[in-house]
Design goal:
By secondary structure, the chain is an alpha+beta fold. It has helices at about 30-50, 60-85, 90-120, 125-130, 140-155, 155-175, 180-205, 210-240, and strands at about 245-250, 255-260, 265-270, 275, 290-295, 295-300, 310, 315, 320, 325-330, 330-335. It is built from 8 helices and 11 strands.
Length: about 350
């Protein structure tokens, strides 16, 4: 592989324009993994919800609302983290990320409860005319009007569960900041929250049975759709938004995709890498880095003695092109790139 000088005078290499679409290169492994993580978190949340909320009635106090949101948000956040992290190779990093995400989820739930206390005291009939008169673009005024009209059409409970989905998504983004694009994470949370808010009025029964049966019915009716929608929306938004990514061909989790965002992607055996590799094959703790520079995607070894094989040849600092195969140790990945829509 031709070396690139420190002045980055790139050699002219043949490059074929990528014509594939990201829609045709979905990672169904990643979709199933993320949905499964959301459902596992939902089941754990249902158990906590039944255990921590003794009465099945839906006219609840602020303290009971806080327990409900925490019992739902914390396991859902952990479920998404479980699907994202490397438990076998990077247990310490996963625990640190999951702890950060749970703390953010708990803070978000406290904020939701505070809003729930304030919402009944807001005169929405006075707020809506004020929003209508604002001299701001329609794309700003429209969503504000929609949010202000929600309490008149949906119960506070349904709105809170929808916002809980947004809180979980944002907390998850804080736990794994390099694995997901923040804008995509927010979009997934909003989409899941809107869908959950639309489904809950039909899913929640008007009258709940007394005792444990009622608590189980309520928990499963809320949390299973929430977990499934969160996982599915994250998977769909991620697959739709990816432009460059690595596909694992051989190694841990073959079929998994690692999208490339603005932040550098690191490879190695250390748990703080984005792609954690097996220690066999002479792989270093921090072996290689993939970064964007001037519209190009470059790969370079982090230490001079680190071996990076690109298209069957040793690479120093090299540009990645669509369809290139990359081998580090016993792990083989393929780089994909699609044109912007």
């Amino acid at each position: 592989m031709t070396d690139i000088s420190p002045e980055f005078n790139y050699p002219t290499l043949p490059h074929l324009r990528a014509t594939r679409s990201a829609w045709t290169h979905w990672s169904w492994y990643d979709v199933a993994r993320t949905v499964g993580g959301g459902l596992l978190g939902a089941l754990a949340g249902a158990v906590l919800l039944v255990w921590c909320t003794p009465d099945a009635g839906r006219a609840v106090t602020t303290g009971l609302w806080l327990r409900r949101l925490l019992c739902a948000a914390l396991p859902l956040t952990l479920g998404l983290c479980l699907a994202e992290g490397h438990l076998r190779r990077a247990r310490e990093a996963w625990l640190r990320a999951a702890g950060t995400a749970v703390l953010w989820a708990a803070g978000g739930c406290l904020l939701l409860v505070a809003l729930g206390v304030l919402l009944p005291h807001i005169r929405w009939e006075a707020v809506i005319p004020w929003l209508t008169a604002l001299h701001v673009p329609f794309w700003v005024r429209g969503p504000l009007l929609w949010l202000a009209a929600l309490p008149a059409h949906l119960s506070t409970e349904v709105v809170a569960w929808g916002l809980c989905a947004v809180v979980v998504s944002l907390a998850f983004a804080r736990g794994f900041p390099g694995a997901r694009h923040p804008g995509q994470t927010l979009a997934a949370g909003l989409l899941a929250g809107v869908l959950l808010g639309a489904l809950l009025p039909a899913l929640l029964p008007d009258a709940l049975p007394a005792g444990t049966a009622g608590r189980w019915l309520y928990a499963l009716a809320v949390l299973l759709p929430a977990g499934g929608l969160l996982g599915f929306c994250h998977a769909v938004v991620r697959e739709w938004g990816k432009r460059q990514w690595l596909l694992v061909l051989f190694g841990d989790h073959p079929g998994r995709h690692y999208p490339l965002y603005d932040a550098p992607l690191t490879l190695g055996t250390a748990p703080d890498n984005t792609l954690v590799l097996d220690v066999t094959g002479g792989v270093r703790p921090h072996h290689a880095i993939i970064r964007r520079e001037d519209g190009r995607v470059l790969i370079a070894p982090i230490v001079p003695e680190a071996l990076v094989v690109l298209c069957d040849r040793r690479a120093d600092v090299s540009e990645l092109f669509d369809g290139n195969d990359l081998q580090i140790g016993e792990t083989v990945v393929r780089y994909y790139s699609v044109p912007d829509r």
